[in-house]
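1st attempt posting a full record on here, be nice pls
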Amino acid sequence: MTQQFRGGVAVITGAASGIGTGLARKAASLGMRLVLADVNAPSLHAFAATLDAEVLAVPTDVTQACALEALAEQAWARFGGVDLLFNNAGLMATGFSWEITPERFARCMDVNLGGVLNGIRSFVPRMLKDGRPGRIINTASVGGFLPSPLMSPYSASKFAVVALTESLWGELKMLKAPVDVHLLAPGPVLSGIFDDPFGDAGTNPATQEFVQTMREMQTRNGMTADELAERAFAGIERNDYWLIPHPEHLFDALEKRVEAIVAQKTPLGYF
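the predicted structure (as tokens):
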């Protein structure tokens, strides 16, 4: 694995916490140079300082197209190109759909989906112009295949990332481009994604109970960000399109979901 990635450049959004930290540490261990982006500037710079690698840390709000343009410009100016682009930034929003404020719902969609799209718009044209092999890895979720009550903005955004990524894969194949695409769909990961998922919807006891259940599942079944990154990079090396670090949390339930759709069963029949 080391030789394939050594000396390459990896761009990672959402790099200062959770999955992003694992991806960055793994890329650094493989001898890659890093461009790390996160909206939390102090955390980003503090984390970047822990890595034994050449790192460009760029505070970035992925919801702003101009910020991704600036990120791409700095990546090319510093390193001359990009080999791996991880569109990874994401956040959680929980609550009954009608109780989540429009602002919080929109923020979840803007980060989880808009951030991926902004990354595609800013980096893909430059990667195509370079004409050299590269890879784009978009972070979705098991929740992008299995919708959940009380997580509607998260599920909707991750379903959209699944569709967007597969469309992008087809478009680049149409062009016979040397840029490959991968979908990363994690299950539970030991991270802070459920630290503050409520907003104004958090006063509902049902929402609070749901989040507590999710936190317990995360603690009980979650893998570390480093374990996830190990599996993700192994899949990238094999050129797997589907990067599914937690097959045990997806495949059986997804099969039941597909069967329910084909049989026209009510949606909750496969949970």
